[in-house]
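Ticket #4471: structure export looks truncated?
Reporter: QA, pipeline team
Priority: medium

Steps to reproduce: submit the single chain below to the structure queue and open the exported record.
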Amino acid sequence: MSELTVSRHFVEAALVGAEKAGIDTHTLLREAGISPDLLKIEMARVSSTQYSRLMQAAWNAMDDEFMGLGPRRCRTGTFATMCALVIDCPNLEAVYRQAFDFCRLFEPMVTMKLEVEDKTARLVTAIEGDINDPMHFFRESILVIWHRLGSWLIGQPVELLKAEFSYPRPPHGDEYRHIFHCPLSFEASETALTFDKRFLQAPVIRDKPEMRQFLKTSPADLLSRPDESNTFTGRIRALIGRDFARSLPDFEWIATELHTSPQTLRRRLKQENTSFQEIKDLLRRDMAIYYLSRPDLPINDIAFRVGFTEPSTFHRAFKKWTGVTPGAYREGERGQLQD
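Actual output as written to the record:
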C-alpha cells in the first residue's frame, strides 16, 4: 500500500509544460488514475503511485524528460543513459563528477556541479538558457533527482545540512520541509544542496541488474517516493505502523526503540524540520486519503481506522488537513464534484 501522498501543487506544476504544448492534461491525469475534479480542491493530495504514473505519462506524451519546462528538450532515455554510465563509478564523488560530465555534453547545459570544501560538499544547480518554470518544479526536480539517485546508489540517505534556493520562498514552501529534511534558505545566491563531505567516499553498492529494475520506474519514483528508511522521520513512521485503531506508542518508547534519548530525538527531528506530533498527523492524513479512495469503506469506519473515536473529531481534523470534508473529498476523487 502506498501511504505517502503528494500535494496538488506538484501535480499542477508537473503539467505546466504539457499544457503549454497543447497536450490534453485531463487525459494524462486519467491515465494516472487522478480525477481532474479532485484538483478543484485546493489542499487535495494524490498517492505517490498516482504521481509516478502521471510523471511517466507526461514524459511519454512529450518525449521530453524536462516536460516542456527546460531550456531545451531532453529526449526520453537520457536519464537512463546517465545511470548506465555512473553505475560503474567507485564512490559518490565519482558519480557526481561523471554525471556532470555527461550533462555538459548537451547545450544548453542543465546539471549540478559538485563543489568540495573543507568539511562540506555542495551540489550547485547550473542551468544555461531560459526556462519555463513558473512554479519552480523544474529546479526542485533536479535537486531531488540528483540527491535521491546518489542516496540510492550508495544505499544510504545523503543527509543534507542545508538546501538553498535562489528565489523567494514560494507559497508551497512548507512542502520543502518534507522533501529535503533540513534547514532551508530562500533568496540565496545559488540553488544548491550542502552535505557532509564524508558521503563522497561512500562506495556505490548497486549493480547493473538492480539498476535495470530501478530504471523501470525512475526518475518518477525518485520524485514521488523518497526513501526515508534511514531518516528519523521515516523510522518513526515505520515504528508507528498503520494500525491507528490501537493506542499509538509514546515518544519515550519510540526514543528507546531508536536507541536514543528523548532530548536527542527531539533535536534530530528539529534538524529534519519536523516534530513527533506532525509525523503522527501527516501519517493519519495520508492513511485517511488512502482509505477514502476505497468506496466500500464507510467514512465512520475510516475515522476509527485512523485513530478517531468520534466521527465528528475526524471530520474537523480532515477539514483542517485538506480544506474539505471527507465526503466532499471522496466525491472529488470519484469525479463527482459539482461546480
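Status: closed, not a bug. The export was complete when the record was re-opened. Leaving a note from the reviewer for reference: The two ends are 32 Å apart (CA to CA).
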